[in-house]
């Protein structure tokens, strides 16, 4: 029961944190637009009316978008709309923000789910192989390669993949999300960005686990490596891996912004940057809100999963 209360408390805590972080990110997007040089109303009118822009159309845009009101009232109106389940309308297109950012969210999540899944599976395979053969040639080679890969930024990994598979071999599309196979290169870029650190965590966890009593006893009894892994090593290894996995993936959400722009995807990263540059306050804050919620949700899922795998760690109030 103490463990279940700890899990319930963790869920509630993460829900509260999600609201706080989401509003913080959305507020930063609001401030970024407000601090941009130039008159926001002029930029909105220019986007809406093009060459027909005039002082009258600028004033109309200012009144229609509520930019004639004090900044604090603009922010308060947006906060109130969030609690009613609406994120307002785009200042540029006039369309509802909610379906627009939701479509971008789906694009980003499709890339994230594929990339994270590939990274997790490969890191478990490679990390277990290196950890079970500690100090072997394979293990040392793995440590060198992972150190090199971890020093390469995600945008450079993406450029390398585009150069090889899109420009050189012409197997895959280089950009956009309207062609078949569009998700492969962005997902592989994300997976390669996550793989080095995550596989090292798996390897170190396996090395520590294999020094415990039960795996050692299994080797003495002559059990196969496969049985030792699934019976004695897998679950203890997953606890530190998942504990590290959540914050790592949440941190990589920032990398998804770069991946969106690099591969010209209609994801949350592109949506956020374009809306800030266009001074589209509701769209920028809507995209920021979803990014904030995603970061905290990933951390929350990781935390709760660790508690379910080993509740004893949290009965005493300690985390791995």
Automatic annotation (TrEMBL):
This protein's UniProt keywords: Cell membrane, Membrane, Plasmid, Transmembrane, Transmembrane helix, Transport
InterPro entries named in the record: BPD_transp_1_N (IPR045621), MetI-like (IPR000515), MetI-like_sf (IPR035906)
Membrane-topology descriptor: Multi-pass membrane protein
Keyword Membrane carried by entry: yes
Any Pfam family the entry gives: BPD_transp_1
GO BP: transmembrane transport
Transmembrane segments: 7-33, 109-130, 142-167, 179-195, 241-263, 283-302
Gene3D superfamilies linked to this entry: MetI-like (1.10.3720.10)
PROSITE patterns: ABC_TM1
CDD domains documented for this protein: TM_PBP2 (cd06261)
GO CC terms of this entry: plasma membrane
ABC transmembrane type-1 domain span: 105-302
Cellular compartment(s): Cell membrane
PANTHER family the record matches: DIPEPTIDE TRANSPORT SYSTEM PERMEASE PROTEIN DPPB-RELATED (PTHR43163:SF6)
Family: Belongs to the binding-protein-dependent transport system permease family.
The protein's name in its UniProt record: ABC transmembrane type-1 domain-containing protein
Annotated organism of origin: Pararhizobium polonicum
């Amino acid at each position: 029961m103490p463990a279940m209360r700890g899990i319930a408390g963790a869920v509630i805590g993460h829900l509260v944190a999600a609201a706080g972080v989401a509003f913080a990110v959305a507020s930063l997007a609001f401030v970024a637009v407000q601090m941009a040089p130039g008159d926001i109303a002029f930029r909105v009118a220019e986007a809406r009316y093009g060459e027909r822009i005039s002082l009258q159309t600028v004033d109309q845009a200012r009144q229609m978008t509520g930019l004639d009101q004090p900044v604090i009232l603009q922010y308060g109106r947006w906060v109130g709309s969030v609690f009613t389940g609406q994120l307002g309308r785009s200042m540029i297109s006039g369309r509802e923000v909610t379906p627009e950012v939701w479509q971008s969210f789906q694009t980003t999540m499709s890339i994230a789910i594929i990339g994270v899944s590939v990274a997790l599976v490969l890191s478990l395979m490679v990390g277990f192989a290196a950890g079970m053969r500690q100090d072997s040639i394979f293990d040392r080679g793995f440590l060198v390669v992972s150190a090199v890969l971890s020093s390469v930024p995600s945008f450079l990994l993406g450029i390398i993949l585009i150069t090889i598979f899109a420009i050189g071999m012409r197997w895959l599309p280089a950009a956009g999300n309207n062609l078949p196979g569009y998700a492969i290169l962005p997902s592989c870029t994300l997976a390669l960005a996550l793989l080095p650190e995550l596989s090292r965590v798996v390897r170190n966890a396996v090395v520590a686990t294999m020094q415990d009593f039960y795996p050692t006893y299994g080797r003495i009894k002559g059990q196969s490596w496969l049985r030792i892994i699934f019976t004695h090593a897998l679950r203890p290894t997953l606890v530190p891996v998942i504990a590290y996995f959540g914050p790592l993936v949440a941190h990589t959400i920032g990398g998804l912004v770069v991946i969106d722009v690099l591969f010209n995807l209609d994801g949350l990263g592109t949506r956020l940057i374009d809306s800030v540059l266009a001074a589209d306050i509701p769209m920028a804050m809507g995209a920021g809100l979803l990014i904030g919620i995603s970061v905290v949700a990933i951390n929350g899922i990781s935390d709760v999963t660790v508690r379910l795998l080993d509740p004893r760690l949290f009965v005493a109030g300690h985390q791995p």
